[in-house]
Amino acid sequence: DILNLQVYYPWEFLPSSPCRSVVFPLMTSGVTYWVMKSLRQLDVCSSCINSYTLLVSPRLLFTMLSFILDYSVYRLAPCWEADPWKALVLLAGSYVTLVFYTRTFTNTLEGLLFALLMVLVSSRKSGGSLAEPTSGPLIGIVTTAGFFNRPTFLAFALMPLLYWAGLIVDSQKGIKTVINHFLKLVLCACFTAVVFITADTFYFTSTGLDHLYSIKKSSVLDVIAHLNEKMIVTPFNFLSYNLNPHNLALHGSHPRVTHFTVNGIMLFGILHILAIGAGFKMLKKYIYQLFWVKSYCHGSSGLSVRSEGSPTLLLFYFVPLSFLSLFTHQEPRFLIPLIVPLVLFSTSQSRAVKWKPIIILFNVLGALLFGCLHQGGLIPCLLRLEQLMRSPEPSSHPRHYTLLFAHTYMPPRSLLNIQKRDTHIEVIDMAGSEEETLCQTVEQRANNSTCNDRHVFIIIPGTVRATITKCAVSFKNETLIFPHLSMEDPPQIPFLFSGSWRSQLGLYILQLDRD
């Protein structure tokens, strides 16, 4: 939208089915693209828009934003009896921070907002007593913004909001003060919601608005009336879609215990296991107290940060985890916001100290797998193709390119840096097509590429390289991008110990031979 590039619009961002707010993409990646566009228009940097800057600039912004986590952990550690510096080291050494929080995920923004919300609701100790709870306006703004970014944010916000409400009630202020806190929260939440709804409505109905503005007699009231007719509330559309089990099944169904038994361990390793063990102990303890020593709880009210810090942090961790487990579509990245309460819990009472070697090894392997190997050849492949297509043309006629991707993740077309007006570049995403379908498509493109100015490239992992050799085509050039690991088409273990191990962990760019 900003740089006028050819892209693939996800269905969630189509005007016919708007399920995601456009505000945060515009505020993050959009800002970096706007800066690059402005620099080009001012002739400060005429060649600053290329596949590399399109990739790195949003990631650089997200890396800078990730320090919100560090700030939050440093502020929260004294409140939850954790050592600030040990918590910061554990956070910074986690591959979740190094890999996921430097990428442009909505889950990353969700994690940053969750960390800020925890800071807002946690009261710092002042002279041995709890400070006055934070007033509601900022909490209302952060909660609503998180809801519009990803509606699942409500699962993360539930326990912090209940904890804050408990502090307000236990502060023994007058009823008017309590009502005032909640009224400020609600008013600021409503105002923030109006801002998001207005921005999304303008974006997704831009065609209709352009039509209105083109009519000279259209007044501001006409525009407002148009917005009222087309008002778009993206979180409700998101929930309406995802609460339908049939829709979730289209994106992949998983057992409801996947987050607990697989994804949590995959992201956090031994820290997740320690939290589960502590959770069972806490549950056993409270069940015992409930049935056998009820008098133990008499006279206590609310949650005390000093005495109940660890159980409360466990609730901050397991309540969102439990709510997310109600949905059958469960991806690991959905859990990355939970790193803050887990780090605080693990460093309180020095729980993670004796597991230090295992934690270091786990995060080194995780960073290598998810930061380098997993689909690692796709981005370098796009960077190389962009350079190839931008190379000087020997003839006056524009060259035509067909880029066919198979058995890779969906290639982000924006990194090819193709202008919308360019019609000589075609991108085909075959996803995980069967051999017969793939060969049929490749042979069809080969038959249509007889002219000298047409070039066809097939991009395919080394693990399925043999599939292409069965097609009735030949190739004149091939380039191996290393490393690249496809978990959908993993390499066979014996091949990894043979002379062809690099090809098994690589991504091929194959140029079709016109002859």
TrEMBL record:
Pathway: Glycolipid biosynthesis; glycosylphosphatidylinositol-anchor biosynthesis. GO terms for molecular function: alpha-1,2-mannosyltransferase activity. The keyword Transferase applies. It holds the Pfam family Glyco_transf_22. It is found in: Endoplasmic reticulum membrane. GO terms for cellular component: endoplasmic reticulum membrane. Its EC number is 2.4.1.-. GO terms for biological process: GPI anchor biosynthetic process. Keywords: Endoplasmic reticulum, Glycosyltransferase, GPI-anchor biosynthesis, Membrane, Transferase, Transmembrane, Transmembrane helix. It comes from the Eukaryota. The chain crosses the membrane at residues 109-127, 147-169, 181-204, 260-280, 358-383. The keyword ATP-binding does not apply. It is a multi-pass membrane protein. Belongs to the glycosyltransferase 22 family. PIGZ subfamily. This is Mannosyltransferase. The lineage of its organism: Eukaryota, Metazoa, Chordata, Craniata, Vertebrata.
